[in-house]
Amino acid sequence: TVTTATPRTSELGLMLPGSASGVDDCFTAWTSKGATVIEEPHEDVFGRTFVVADPDGNLIRVSPID
């Protein structure tokens, strides 16, 4: 794990085909494997979304394809 003095604010975006249920399924799968939750699944202007951090602290936002 990489630790930095500066908090990370940029995100890698992953857009999934399908509906909001696909986003929730991804959240369940990733958190069951120990993903660090930054934002729980919620509705936003671009649809259902959540944010997790990978082991290096990179932020990953998951949302559906429009």
TrEMBL record:
Protein name, as recorded: Glyoxalase
Organism: Cryobacterium luteum
Boundaries of every Glyoxalase/fosfomycin resistance/dioxygenase domain copy: 23-61
Entry-linked Pfam families: Glyoxalase (PF00903)
